[in-house]
Design goal:
Elements: E1 2-10, E2 13-16, E3 19-21, E4 27-31, H1 38-46, E5 53-57, E6 66-69, H2 80-90, H3 97-106, H4 122-134, E7 140-144, H5 152-168, E8 172-176, H6 180-186, E9 189-194, E10 197-203, H7 204-209, H8 214-231
Parallel strand pairs: 4-8, 4-9, 6-7, 7-8
Antiparallel strand pairs: 1-2, 1-3, 1-5, 9-10
Helix pairs in contact: 2-4
């Protein structure tokens, strides 16, 4: 996928991404400060909002092959099962009960299958959101902070899921997270955003440890300090 000079104004915020590419079959990450445009970029890719200028070259990807999760998942009125089936329904795909039950069991949600989805805990909702995103085998998956607030055990579960998918049938991922340790562990390519612009793209080591751009260095240093205060030293 190629992002070509996207521009979008929303209130006082002005996005001008510049141009960059996301190689197919890779795990990409976007990092940057709050309000830099990460979520807006995802919404532009999904087609939820339209750019004022510029374009996206999807390189053959269909809209129905792209999915996105959010930090605060939106659920339709209904059960966990109905929410998981929703993306299948709109794509006219028959639900595979064995596959759905397998996902629920793996995530420890087998007893929640027919529970009202909005009554789940925040962690359970994030797990259902991930199952719903993966259930139709998309080719481009954007994870917008959905994994950020999971406990370490469940974060590791979905890290394993992502790596298993990449081993079996590589797809393209775009991960957004404030956990740099998670980003460093998972992503092959990083893109750094600052005030609506993608300043740099490169390997995780190039961006996190080798950048000469003071804005990137300052961001990484501040995030490492914050993580050390919350979770202990950053290992990388």
């Amino acid at each position: 996928m190629k992002i070509i000079d996207l521009e979008k104004r929303q209130g006082d915020f002005q996005m001008k991404t510049g141009s960059f590419s996301m190689e197919e079959g890779k795990i990409h990450g976007i990092i940057g400060g709050n309000g830099c445009g990460k979520t807006t970029l995802c919404k532009l890719i999904m087609g939820i909002v339209k750019p004022d200028r510029g374009r996206i070259d999807y390189e053959g990807l269909e809209v129905g092959e792209i999915t996105m999760t959010a930090q605060r998942p939106y659920f339709i009125q209904g059960s966990v099962y109905e929410n998981i089936c929703y993306p299948l329904k709109i794509r006219r795909i028959r639900p595979d009960e064995q596959k759905i039950d397998g996902w629920l069991a793996r995530c420890g949600l087998e007893e929640k299958k027919y529970q009202y989805a909005r009554s789940l805990s925040s962690g359970e909702q994030q797990k259902v959101s991930m199952i719903r995103a993966l259930i139709f085998d998309p080719k481009f998956i954007m994870i917008d902070e959905t994994l950020s607030n999971l406990d370490p055990e469940n974060l590791e579960l979905f890290e394993q899921v992502i790596l298993e998918i990449q081993k079996e049938r590589p797809v393209t991922w775009l991960l957004i997270s404030h956990r740099l340790a998670h980003i460093y562990k998972m992503c092959e390519v990083l893109h750094f955003m600052h005030q609506g612009e993608v300043l740099a793209s490169g390997s995780r080591d190039e961006i996190l440890f080798g950048s000469e751009d003071e804005r990137i260095r300052r961001f990484v240093a501040n995030e490492v300090i914050r993580m050390e205060e919350k979770h202990g030293a950053f290992e990388g």
